[in-house]
Amino acid sequence: MMSEVQATSSETLSGRLQPAWGETVCRLIEGAVGAVNFLVLIALTLVVFVGVIARYLFNSGFPWTEEFAIWAFTWLIFLGAATGIRQKRHVHVDLLVDHLPATARPAVDFLRDSLVALTLLLFTFSGYELADRIGGVSTTLQWPNALRYGVVPAAGCIGLLFLLLGETTMAGLLRRAGSVVLAGAMYLVVQDQALSPFQDVSPSLLMTLVFFLTMLMGVPIAFCMMLGVFVTTWSADLLPAPAILQNMIAGSTKFILLAIPFFLTSGYLLNLGRLSERLIDFAESLFGHFRGGLAQVVVVNSVLIGGISGSSGADAASTTKVAVPEMIKRGYSPAFSCAITAVSSILPNIIPPAIAMLVYASVSNVSISRLFAAGIIPGLLVAMALMFVVYILAVRRGYEGGKKRAPVSVVWSSFLQAAPTLAIAVLILGCIRLGITTATEAGVMALVWAFILGKFVYRAYGWRSFYRAIIDCATDSALIGFLIATSVPFAWILIAEGVPQELIGWARETAQGQFGLLLIMNLTLFVAGMFLDLTPAMLIAAPLFLPLMTQAGIDPIQLGLIMIINLQLGGVTPPVGILVFISAQIAKVPPYAVFREVGVFVAAVLVVLAAVCAFPFLTIGIWDFFG
User: Is the pTM of this model over 0.85?
Assistant: First the structure.
């Protein structure tokens, strides 16, 4: 008996920690941070919504609402970034790491964790220095400015705890502890410029090399950008570490970017309240009689979803759950069903309001109203192209032959069921186009309307489900905001070093006119999109190509739609193809089979992309036509 106890004890010490206190601590912290994020997002929503009501109904706004919203978004971004470490939700590329031999993986994982820990130490120590240096109080809230910046070191500490205690084995805990120690040593070394071997190396070149090397190791993209910028402090004095963090916060908390959590939450509530199912029923009453009827409905549903939520990932997940099982029952192949669902999910980032448009507007300073208007025709053209391909394949493969058109009474009934949801799209686009509200204000009104419909009108969910959905949405919003934040100093270094100007000079010598420039840019973006998610790719590429293409006479609005459509294709092309993986994982279909089916749809979208490049009126014409 004694030997059994000793054996068990030995196994426990070498395997799981005797009490799993590390996991318990992580869960408690995660729950507490989740609760704070929930409260921050709710407060952010209520404050902006009350400000809109006060201004437009009572002609008397509150002067502090915008400042509070910006502060709240700052807290949300950094606390959500820490939570993303715990939940492993940061965008990263595992392409190279997945092909390493098993013997090399532990060393790469150790170095990756050390680099992530190095970034978190930067947040902790340089963030504390920034919060300590920033004095005074805010303009309208009259709160200490240190309160806003204090979230940065707090997030760094929380992230380090999640990284350190995220392992449940003694060996894993020791390995993580070693990675944090190594990160501490690297942090101390980088503080001394005299030890730098890169003093004669261009900061932008060093930053770019660090970015790509760390990305290939599986370090999250946002952390890759931060590491690249941080290493430049070792070789030059362009931006000291506290200034990097201040630059991040200032660039990522513009009022227009607050529309991201609002539109994203609208999409979450749309699915939670089963409002998307009403849209599918309405779309089927209109297009279900076409050849390949349900596949056509999937495309139309993405158009309708795109006018409300602007989130491709949410569309891919919700439509796969609802439509793909029914498509398989009706005789469509599982791979085809997932393929059309995944490809259709690019539409919410092309048809306004789109998260991608908000990201592009934040880095290009173009009118979000004009950008929203510019997406309407290209989005509809993409939808028509996909529906045409569906028809051809349905005829060739014998998928779901044409059936009798739905009676007018059925169409009318389904329209009435979907009308309250469709009103969200009308509310958003109408208010923005007529200049009644900003995109952020329209987003918060859409969120409140979606909440009222799902919770009180249709009573589709309880408060517990609502709480979990808001926490998930807060994290997703924070991770997008965090990517934008880390891209700001990254772009600043490139601009300070004159990289865009050098790119312009090289392109002028290499390319022949607008056609050559567009060809080079589209090829570059297409390759980048195959490896990077749309948001980081956009944040890196836009500052580089925008000066070049505008000097060549291409309207920034047209350029934005070209970049969005091109980079969105990365979501359905290997090796990353996140939309394909979302759909394939939910439907339990091999991703490689879905990728094979996607090819012909990608070709159709490329035809539309070529038209958008060739004919500027497809993007800027609708705004000019309506004045």
Answer: no
